[in-house]
User: What shape does this take?
Amino acid sequence: MELFEAIAQRRTHRGEFRTDPISQTDLDQLIEVARWAPSPFNTQPWQFLIIREAAGKNALADLTARCVAEQFKDPRFLDDNSRWMRLTDAEWQQRGDGVRLTDHVDLPPMLRKSPTKLKPLLKNAKNLSILGHLGAGKMPAKEMAELIRTSPLLILILMDWTRRPPGEGGQRWMWLGMGAMIQNLLLAATALRIGTQFVSAPLERQRDRERIREIFDVPASSEIITLLRLGYVDSMRGESVRLPPSSFIRYEHYTESVSTPAN
Ligand SMILES: Cc1cc2nc3c(=O)[nH]c(=O)nc-3n(C[C@H](O)[C@H](O)[C@H](O)COP(=O)(O)O)c2cc1C
Assistant: This one.
């Protein structure tokens, strides 16, 4: 697959993957592209914990289920989330950002037809958290856990603090290098017809990251950056939206509202 095609086709896969394991050849290719990412001072601070066995998957699935259920009860988390939740396709397309609620939560049948009924609730995170206390988070928690449990491959991505580059900005540059590395991996996965999904729920809170550290014996010198689930998919197709360039491109001065590049 050509590079531009892979960039355009890459999508977050929130559903099930095919059950066949990722071949060692493909995994080696993912590792190879990660290796060639840029990093500050060529420090290459990344580390991968590759999880293929049930024990590791189950531990992460159980932790994720607990985290998701707890997040549904947390008004601050819900309030933060609601800003980026789009209730309908039309709203999502029109705004060009955020995520569709229905991509993350399986709504009960009565709400599926008219999800806008949720609008007043989303405006008041306290009400939503009451639903969480009544068990509304249990289903999404169970579903997310199942997706993790059945993923052919999980990669826990770590950053090695002992490879910190010099200078006041060292930490920032390290994070940027990690992002570049992860994008290499996502694009190569797309080219190999491997679907990917970030799984952030079990990494939101420090105490949950500490739990992961204990489970996998990750040393204090390594930061837990992200968790990816991966598996082959039959179709790379999936919907997504983006803001138009005009919303984030500035020429010459930040405050210039409308300007075109000089030819
Ligand atoms: C750092 C980071 C964390 C993310 N965490 C999650 C996540 O926990 N669950 C999820 O389904 N998608 C997650 N995503 C995927 C974004 O929601 C997704 O990239 C965005 O909605 C655009 O969709 P697309 O990737 O299909 O184009 C994450 C993406 C990034 C870069």
Notes: The chain has a mean pLDDT of 92. The pocket of flavin mononucleotide is lined by residues 11-12, 14, 99, 197-201, 238, 240 (CB under 6 Å).
